[in-house]
Amino acid sequence: MAEVTAEMIERGRGGDPRVVTRRRQLASSIRETREKLTSSGFGRGTFARELIRSFAQSRKSGAPAVAALALTIGMVATIWIPVIHAVMWLSLVMTAIAVGYSMAVKFLASEDAETDLPAWQLRFVITEAIQGFAWAVIVALMFGMTDDSVRSFLLVALLLVAAMSALLSAGIPEAVYAGVGPITGAIVVFMQWPLNLQTLPLTLLAMAAQIYFVVLARRLHSTTVSSLSFSMDKEALIAELEEAKSNSDEARRRAEEASLAKSRFLATMSHELRTPLNAILGFSEVMKSELFGPHTVPSYREYSNDIHSSGQHLLMLINEILDLSRVEAGRYELKEESVSLANVVEDCRHLLAMRAKKRDVTVTESIEPSLPRVWADERSMRQITLNLLTNAIKFTPQGGSVRIKVGWTASGGQYLSIRDTGPGIPPEEIPIVLSSFGRGSMAQKNADEGSGLGLPIVKGLVELHGGTFTLKSQVREGTEVIVILPPERIIDALPQLDPDAPEETARPNRRRRKAA
Q1: 383 lies in a domain?
Q2: What pLDDT does 445 receive?
């Protein structure tokens, strides 16, 4: 135990400071991402900031195209209005475009922590309204002209401006209304002043087009929101996976340190306890056998027997704990060889025959003939059989019976079944008896003292062999334990080869397995 330092124990309790810092950063990232996903309006969280940023980027990238459209409209307008008026209008529109462009650049260059989102939203809405009024001024310059070409020119030009404004301002719905509203009003006034029923269908069509542009902008806004939501959802998932990985690494580190400490403790316990136990067992054996003469007090002989029995029980408990720890840690080495499962079961039955006779328990066995040998660890198979048979005899009342069966499985493996007529185990207590140091209520009332490690050791050894362990039990109906070895463990007998036989018939055929 000297290698397990206080630093390791402290790390196991409190965690590595670097790992703790990393987990805090991941938790902060997850909270920030969740804030993005839950923010539904401007001025709350990073989600609104991303929408305004999308608007600013659209305005910044679309400014040259809008300026080119304004220049084109101004040049064409000189056909009907004086050049000075067209230049003044063009200057006004260019100034509004430049203001919007500079505000977008300023917003994109600002730090997120210093950004006042509601104020920026209001500024962008006002800028869009100014641009909309600037575009509508051209209607004032051509107001009163009744030429159809003028009407067609203004209608097409303003519809193009409205469409472009709606698409570029989709990030902020309020900005769409502020930019498209003045243009729509200008179209209606110009087309219907003075009242002209002939142009009414065209005016209604223009208004329907404006409504379509607004709806399209709303759809683009929804698409942008969905895209941001998916992106942030992905970021949240990545952050949670990072946190889960960090937690898993931390848990694995603690488990490794705990396993190391347990292994060293068990190794030390094995050494420190076995040495005095050997002396206790040896001297108590001498004393109870009275090798150096009879005891003057008869009680000393009984005490010697109790000391020897207690020492054997403690040694058995230590061995079981060590076996279970090796099995759970995956360090139990199987010394595999050719083993006859039927012979192992027969030896174990003879070994426990006196115990069964003492308890007046009848043990019967049914072993299928000509079972082939299996590739397994003989010591493990013997321990499995002894543990199961000992439990069956121990839990069976006087006059009861224990039946042992060994045979083929339907898949070609071999099975060992031990069934007793004991009190049985309630179904809800089966997971308890299969756990380390677990004992059922019936076992505590009707059986001798035990460590509760027999079945977990058996289950672990069976799984190391690739087999399956099944426990079936009902109260007052007894218990049946079934151990199944897979077909891969079966060693099939090969027929003797005839050296004079043809090549086709000299090939050995695998022995056909029987199915139980």
Answers
A1: yes
A2: 53
Please check whether residues 289 and 144 belong to one and the same domain. no
Q: Per-residue DSSP letters for 198-219?
A: TTHHHHHHHHHHHHHHHHHHHH
- In this structure, the answer to whether residues 71 and 122 fall within a common structural domain is yes
Would residue 500 count as lying in a domain? no
The structure tokens 């203004």 sit at 154
CA distance 425 to 434: 11
Do 299 and 395 lie in a common domain? no
Look at residue 37 in the predicted model and tell me its pLDDT: 47
Show the low-confidence residues of the chain (pLDDT under 70). Answer: 1-47, 111-115, 192-196, 198, 263, 266-267, 269-271, 325-331, 436-452, 493-516
> What is the C-alpha separation between 497 and 313, in angstroms, rounded?
53
Q: Indicate if 400 and 471 belong to the same structural domain.
A: yes
Q: Answer for the pair 159, 206: CB distance below 8 angstroms, yes or no.
A: yes
Q: Could you tell me if residue 155 is inside a domain? A: yes
Express as a percent the part of the chain with pLDDT over 90. 23
Supply the DSSP symbol for 501. Answer: S
What pLDDT is attached to residue 510?
38
Number of domains in the chain: 3
Task: Write down the pLDDT at residue 508.
Answer: 39
Q: Is 293 found in the same domain as 178?
A: no
Residues 157 and 173 in one domain: yes
For residues 376 and 374, what is the distance between their CA atoms, to the nearest angstrom? 6
Q: How many Cβ atoms sit within 10 Å of the Cβ of residue 431? A: 10
Are residues 142 and 77 in contact, defined by beta-carbon separation less than 8 angstroms? Answer: yes
DSSP string covering 108-167: HHS-GGG--HHHHHHHHHHHHHHHHHHHHHHHHHTTT---HHHHHHHHHHHHHHHHHHHH
State which of 129, 163, 196 marks the end of a domain.
Answer: 196
CB 433 within 8 A of CB 425: yes
398 and 312 part of one domain: no
- Cβ–Cβ < 8 Å for 199, 192: yes
**Cβ pair 42, 51 in contact under 8 A:** yes
Cβ count within 10 A of residue 100: 26
What range defines the domain where residue 106 resides?
Answer: 58-196
